[in-house]
Amino acid sequence: MQTVDDAEQQVEFDRKIAEEQKIEPTDWMPDDYRKNLVRQMSQHAHSEVIGMQPEGNWITRAPTLRRKAVLLAKVQDEAGHGLYLYSATETLGTSRSEMIEALQTRKAKYASIFNYPTLTWADVGAIGWLVDGAAIVNQISLQRTSYGPYSRAMIRICKEESFHQRQGYEIMYSLAKGSPEQKQMAQDAMNRFWWPSLMMFGPHDSDSAHSGRSMKWKIKRQSNDDLRQKFIDQTVPQIEVLGLEMPDPEIKWNEERGHYDSGEIDWEEFYQVINGSGPCNHQRLKHHINAHEKGEWVREAVRAYRVKQQEKSAENAA
Ligand SMILES: [Fe+2]
Ligand SMILES: [Fe+2]
After folding, report:
1. Are 142 and 202 within 8 A, CB to CB?
2. Which Pfam families match (predicted)?
3. Distance (Å) from CA 263 to ligand 1 centroid
4. Which helix (DSSP H) or strand (DSSP E) does residue 259 occupy?
5. Does residue 202 come out as left (phi exceeding 0), alpha (psi in the -120 to 50 range) or beta?
6. How far is 242 from 177, CA to CA, in rounded Å?
7. What are the sequence ranges of the domains in the chain?
8. ∠ CA(151), CA(23), CA(5), 5° rounding?
9. Which residue, of 31, 32, 87, 99, has the greatest Cβ tally within 10 A?
């Protein structure tokens, strides 16, 4: 039940949202706004971190030293994105360890695309180009999200994502313009990552559980279907430049709409993967838990250092 005080705060909150002002951590906010943000932002953070695995798998096997250095930097950026986002989510009163536990016990989700395996080097190209490309479309829109720390994290992350997208496209371009075997590898990687990339935008607007409220609160600024269309429209000409065959035979320019038409996503597959039955769900979580356990000594050292610092400042104060 809302008290008179709450009602006043709600008016103030609504005014800020209407006037495109950011909501900051110390501002009053409705419980559901906070909950919704924690869900979306922690899911986003988990996706950045779990997303390191499919590409990390290729660091030791990158074809040249240059490719290796670039991929290493890219995967490291994703760890950084995870950190910004965990920190931004912590401003809502949720601790990092609570978020990690929710991920590891499958209470929290992450982008379903990272549950697909990376079978060839071309997959690293396809991920940078398509997966980071889809992420950018989504994240550019989120730069205008109503929660200040999330919005600011997105601005910084987007700068790095455009480098990721270009490094992926460059790999695809080299392969597509290479030997027939290399071109085939590029084609195959694109075919496999095309549909999961489209799924990254989430269900159709009409089936999206959280969309309505998130749009009202300006947490989300554009609908899943609009963002997906934007991604398709910008990516199809890039496929043409690569000289690859379309991954979906139904892709066709629609003069009347001014957009590309495309085939229907296999939603059955989407829900299966998001609910834990994708090809790599188990492997991804197992690896995360393992790495987390192995990192316990670092957390222990941080705690010991903190105690030492506190003792020191107590001594100095005495
Ligand atoms: Fe990222
Ligand atoms: Fe990225």
Report:
1. no
2. PaaA_PaaC (PF05138)
3. 27
4. strand 259-261
5. left
6. 7
7. 4-278
8. 165
9. 99
- How many whole angstroms from 132 Cα to the centroid of ligand 2? 5
What's the rounded mean pLDDT across residues 57-70? 96
For 210-222, what is the mean pLDDT? Answer: 85
Q: What is the pLDDT of residues 284-301, one digit of tens each?
A: 999 999 999 999 999 999
Question: Residue 23 forms beta bridges with which residues?
Answer: 147
Helix axis angle for 148-176 and 224-242, nearest 10°, is 20
DSSP-derived 3-state class of residue 247? coil
pLDDT at 111 over 80: yes
Kindly state the helix (H) or strand (E) to which residue 164 belongs, with its residue range: helix 148-176
* Residue 191 CA: distances (Å) to CA of 187, 217, 293: 6, 36, 36
CB under 8 Å to 280, separation ≥6 — which residues?
A: 54, 114, 115, 116, 117
By the 10 Å C-beta count (0-12 exposed, 13-18 middle, 19+ buried), 290 is classed as: exposed
- In the predicted structure, residue 238 carries a pLDDT above the cut 60: yes
Q: Mention the CATH class of domain 4-278.
A: mainly alpha
Centre of ligand 2 from the C-alpha of residue 51, in Å: 8
Cα-to-centroid distance, 48 and ligand 2 (Å): 8
Q: In this structure, which ligand is nearest to the CA of 127?
A: 2
Mean pLDDT of 226-235: 97
pLDDT at site 1: 56
CB 229 within 8 A of CB 259: yes
β-sheet bridge partners, residue 253: 260
Cβ atoms within 10 Å of 295's Cβ, excluding its own: 10
CA 77 – ligand 1 centroid, Å: 7
pLDDT of residue 2: 60
pLDDT band at 55 (very low <50, low <70, confident <90, very high): very high
Q: Which two three-digit tokens encode residue 312?
A: 């020191």
Q: Residue 152 corresponds to which tokens in the numbers above?
A: 């600011």
Between CA 228 and CA 225 the distance in angstroms is 5
